[in-house]
Design a protein that fits this description.
Elements (H helix, E strand, L loop, with lengths): L23 H7 L12 H26 L4 H24 L2
Helix pairs in contact: 2-3
């Protein structure tokens, strides 16, 4: 729309003590998600891998929710919303293999 002001996404960085390093190698190395093997995998195995990856991310997000409570409640609220979405998808994929 003409004249409208763009709004930042919910996950846009709010502040950082040090500049973030978003290079692919750094993100992959520090993500906490187990690396994938090469080649084909059965669908049941892929769903399990995805559930495990979501679990790892959710665990890290919950720690960040605790860490941001006092210094930055606005960021904490953003993290709570993002984590809720991740938990929803985790539950749906987990139910796929049940």
């Amino acid at each position: 729309m003409r004249g409208s002001t763009p709004t930042p996404s919910r996950s846009a960085p709010r502040r950082s003590a040090s500049p973030p390093d978003g290079r692919a190698d750094t993100v992959a190395r520090t993500s906490g998600i187990a690396p994938l093997g090469g080649g084909w995998a059965k669908d049941v195995d892929v769903v399990r891998i995805l559930v495990d990856a979501l679990d790892a991310v959710i665990t890290r997000m919950r720690q960040r929710i605790r860490d941001t409570g006092d210094p930055d409640p606005v960021s904490q609220d953003i993290l709570i919303g993002l984590t809720a979405d991740l938990e929803k998808h985790h539950w749906m994929f987990q139910a796929e293999n049940a």
